[in-house]
């Protein structure tokens, strides 16, 4: 009866594991009691005791299922003690002992097989879940990329018109004092647009290049000094081989610089500097950013870089794009808490040396 209830409840209501385990134990005791009355270990129908074991390893956590298995095996051992009540001839004792041992071995094998298939099923479900999350992220990145391309296209025409106006203003004599700072800042905007076009062309044509670790370090320092001049950043190099090579396209440096700038933004207003460590070993390029954690917790760090989600300072788009870019080159990005700090670790595989 309890087995039928379990099957029915599993279709509609998720019962607590302890309750399901209790019902299976009751089944084990009830079935063993019936078999004890009708022949004990000599009863050929004792194979029915495998049903609770199979159900336990199908629907219960491993700890509860193991408990049901042990109780079932112990109940079979008790059946041997009841044999003298049914049979007074010792000629069949070895056969009955063999039946009990066979039951225990069969129960163990069935348990191992079911546990293995449950593990495989769990792994497959996790893989499917990760695939769905990756597809969702890719769809979001595609939408963001489409919007960025449209924005760059729409900005190009006003930028050209503004450049003509600035050139006309520069031709006036004397030129206003405020004009030169505007020209310099607008030149930076134009350079960013040209850089974006070059990166887009490289990605579209799948052009890959070799980036030396030493050049990556210098480029990151230059970008941070221009875009976050107020940030207190300490740069460290540990066992850095300047000639170590990373094989990637033009999106690598923007992705790395975005990760460093996110660390600078998170530590904005803090007296503690942002520590950026760059190192290489025989196979990997490592970039580590250490900054104060502020309001970030472990739950937020768990999904950071995997999906777009609203926050106080945006939607985490930069982290998502950077994470996807690093993964494209066979690397990984991870965020973790270490005391009062957030540590961001970027790992990229090094290209094989030509030597």
Automatic annotation (TrEMBL):
The keyword Kinase does not apply. This is Histidine kinase/HSP90-like ATPase domain-containing protein. Residues 252-336 form the Histidine kinase/HSP90-like ATPase domain. Keywords: Membrane, Transmembrane, Transmembrane helix. It comes from the Bacteria. It comes from Idiomarina seosinensis. Coiled coil: none annotated. The chain crosses the membrane at residues 15-41, 48-75, 95-119. Pfam families: HATPase_c.
């Amino acid at each position: 009866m309890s087995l039928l209830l379990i099957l029915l409840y599993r279709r509609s209501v998720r019962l607590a594991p302890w309750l399901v385990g209790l019902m299976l134990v009751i089944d084990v005791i009830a079935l063993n009691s019936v078999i004890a009355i009708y022949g004990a270990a000599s009863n050929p129908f004792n194979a029915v005791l495998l049903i609770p074991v199979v159900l336990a390893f199908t629907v219960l956590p491993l700890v509860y299922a193991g408990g049901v298995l042990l109780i079932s095996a112990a109940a079979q051992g008790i059946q041997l003690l009841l044999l003298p009540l049914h049979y007074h001839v010792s000629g069949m004792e070895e056969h009955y002992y063999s039946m009990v041992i066979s039951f225990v071995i069969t129960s163990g094998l069935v348990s191992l097989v079911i546990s293995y298939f449950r593990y495989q099923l769990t792994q497959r479900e996790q893989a499917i879940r990760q695939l769905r999350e990756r597809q969702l992220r890719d769809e979001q990145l595609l939408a963001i990329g489409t919007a960025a391309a449209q924005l760059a296209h729409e900005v190009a025409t006003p930028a050209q018109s503004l450049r003509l106006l600035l050139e006309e203003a520069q031709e006036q004599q004397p030129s206003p004092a405020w004009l030169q700072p505007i020209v310099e800042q607008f030149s930076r905007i134009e350079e960013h647009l040209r850089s974006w076009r070059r990166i887009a062309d490289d990605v579209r044509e799948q052009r890959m290049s070799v980036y030396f670790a030493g050049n990556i370090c210098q480029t990151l320092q230059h970008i941070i000094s221009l875009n976050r001049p107020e940030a207190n950043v300490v740069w460290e190099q540990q066992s850095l081989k300047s000639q170590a090579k990373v094989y990637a396209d033009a999106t690598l440096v923007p992705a790395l610089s975005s990760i460093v700038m996110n660390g600078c933004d998170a530590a904005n207003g803090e007296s503690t500097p942002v520590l950026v460590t760059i190192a290489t070993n025989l196979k990997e390029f490592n970039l580590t950013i250490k900054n104060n954690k502020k309001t970030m917790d472990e739950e937020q760090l768990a999904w950071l870089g995997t999906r777009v989600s609203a926050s106080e300072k945006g939607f985490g788009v930069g982290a998502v794009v950077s994470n996807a870019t690093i993964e494209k080159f066979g690397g990984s990005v991870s965020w973790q808490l270490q005391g009062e700090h957030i540590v961001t670790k970027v790992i990229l595989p090094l290209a094989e040396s030509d030597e």
